[in-house]
Amino acid sequence: MRKDILKKFACLICGLLLAAAASAQGGPAQAGSVQDGGIIVNVMVRGQAFSFRPVPGSALFMGATEVTQSQYEAVMGENPSRFKGGSLPVEQVSWYDAIYFCNKLSMLAGYSPIYAVDGETDVAKWNYVPNKGNRIDGKITQDLDAAGFRLPTDDEWEYAAWGGQRYRFSGSDSIDEVGWYSGNSGHTTHPVAQKKANGYGLYDMSGNVWEWVWDPWANNLTKRYFRGGSWYYISIHSSLASRFSSRTYYYASRQVDFIGFRILLSSGKQ
After folding, report:
1. Contact partners, residue 73, CB within 8 Å, separation at least 6
2. Are 61 and 265 in contact (CB under 8 A)?
3. In whole angstroms, what is the distance from residue 262 CA to residue 176 CA?
4. 257-270 pLDDT tens trace
5. pTM of the model
6. Which of 169, 241, 256, 258 has CB atoms 3.0–4.6 Å from 230's, for a disulfide?
7. pLDDT per residue over 156-189, tens digit each?
8. Contact, 229 vs 246, CB < 8 A?
């Protein structure tokens, strides 16, 4: 009991330090709190709340849900999704769109942009128009010492998806308890956080939409991995018990209606 209390207190302090860092850089105030027995860091940007949960043993806060269409539109000014609805996960976004979103959100919220193209972190100087299926030309790097928003790595995503548990799916041995897949989706996406969360308070890490991660496929930087299964695929693709089935790759420029993304908030200096 005492150990759990100390852990929650440490996570809350980390969240409050993130909030202070953002405010010091001129960003809007952020909030760290304890809700429903867990730590939540809420970041408000343009009227949208982005909620993050701590990942034990790291300096990372993982997005509690996939990025929604309302959140994406608030940051990017448009919604490219096929299935429309503010609380639905955004889809038809490329990997390039996702990292562009991360940097733009970092700048809006007063954090440090993590991604750079040829050393430039300002997305306005990337010579890239998002949501058009284009490719970013130039060398893309990430600064893991920066405090800001980014995609999880493949390993970070999987660690968070297990949620400190050993279920077949993220949060349960029953896919119907935790995820939307071809057998229960009705051939569409669903509002985020409608199913049971996993042990870290993360929703929809099995199903709804696949989620882009940082990692390239076989050192081919034009192809990137995505994780977790989706509304369109059978349940085995949402199973953490089969890394081969729950992990695949695609061209980073492709925009399809079964791929979205989840972001994390890093406190930097890992």
Report:
1. 79
2. yes
3. 21
4. 999 999 999 988 65
5. 0.89
6. 258
7. 999 999 999 999 999 999 999 999 999 999 999 9
8. yes
